[in-house]
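Researcher: Let's walk through a ligand-bound prediction step by step. First, I give you the protein sequence. Second, the SMILES string for zinc ion. Third, you return the three-dimensional complex as structure tokens. Ready?
Model: Ready.
Researcher: Here are steps one and two:
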Amino acid sequence: MISLNFDQKAGKPLKVLCIGAHSDDIEIGCGGTILQLAERYSEVEFHWAVFSAIGVRESEAQHAASLFAGQRLKGQLLKSFQDGFMPFAGADVKAVFEQELKNISPDLIFTHNRNDAHQDHRLLSQLAWNTFRSHLILEYEIPKYDGDMGQPNCFVPLTPEGAAKKVQFLMEAFQSQRTKHWFDESTFQALMRLRGMECNAPSGYAEAFYGRKLTL
Ligand SMILES: [Zn+2]
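Model: Step three, the predicted complex:
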């Protein structure tokens, strides 16, 4: 299968906006792809927007963004909306998109899947599509108890090193989550292995996304 690459113009960095409801969503959903973009493109900049990052979760979000994006991190917006309650604070959440994210004018947006079982995730996906009307949006997936894994249609094959680094960084950055029964190396490796199998990735590992509207 041929691969598509981003058309990067000299002197104009590829601007990537990563949107996550909670402080580990971006890294779980597209951490491997972020590492790969940073390695492959000489000029790329990342903007992080995390809507619920309170207390230790705030410092974990800061640490994780620095691990995954490094020097390419140009902005990190950390908000303190209550986990699970975002749809009930919808007007305030939407205002963040309108007043703080729209102006970034990104080339590529990573956000949640619109069919995600978590209500906070669904809201941010809807608002991403409401706000960005002529942009490339890729929706990432988050494994969870609810069992909402679907059939993504865009795959990013990862290098063995990239897949390993993603898991290592997740475990290092999000210490507070390690008591959760699903937050371990095998969950993250298994999902990347399945997606790698589905796209015949040379390394065996990939991340997958929903690309609902693409221009070629
Ligand atoms: Zn989440």
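Researcher: And what stands out?
Model: The chain is about 40% helix and 20% strand. The chain has one domain: 14-210.
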